[in-house]
Automatic annotation (TrEMBL):
SUPFAM superfamilies according to UniProt: eIF1-like (SSF55159)
Gene3D superfamilies reported for this sequence: SUI1-like domain (3.30.780.10)
Lineage top rank: taxon: Eukaryota
Protein's name according to its UniProt entry: DH200=94 genomic scaffold, scaffold_1114
Species the sequence originates in: Coffea canephora
Family: Belongs to the SUI1 family.
SUI1 domain location: 31-101
Keyword entries, A-Z: Protein biosynthesis, Translation regulation
GO biological process: regulation of translation
Keyword Protein biosynthesis: yes
Length: 113
């Protein structure tokens, strides 16, 4: 057995497909709905990936009114505009986005515990 017959293991990146920029046909843009644990029982729901032509402030206003919670729009240098809501509103937000016709159900990714 020579030196060339030995295979060295390569590193595997499980998130490579999520970070790859697929600009080809069939590439989907997902809306990511996440929940983040704050202190104690408090949590924060973030909505990222909405198209830029939508008015984030109007969507936020409707979300706050429907779910009786507070929220804000945050400008992130990497992610762009992100909507933040108080509490665990993942199911409510995904149902609202589908019902309002902003995004299709198959283009929503719900993350969290």
């Amino acid at each position: 057995m020579s030196e060339h017959d030995i295979q060295t293991p390569t590193t595997f990146d499980p998130f490579a497909d999520a970070t790859a920029d697929d600009s080809g046909a069939g590439a989907k843009e997902y809306v990511h709905v996440r929940v983040q644990q704050r202190n104690g029982r408090k949590s924060l729901t973030t909505v990222q990936g909405l198209r830029k032509e939508y008015s984030y402030n109007k969507i936020l206003k409707d979300l706050k009114k429907d779910f009786c919670c507070n929220g804000t729009v945050v400008q992130d240098p990497e992610l762009g505009k992100v909507i933040q809501l108080q509490g665990d509103q993942r199911k409510n937000v995904s149902a609202f986005l589908v019902q309002a016709g902003i995004v299709k159900k198959e283009n929503i990714k719900i993350h969290g515990f």
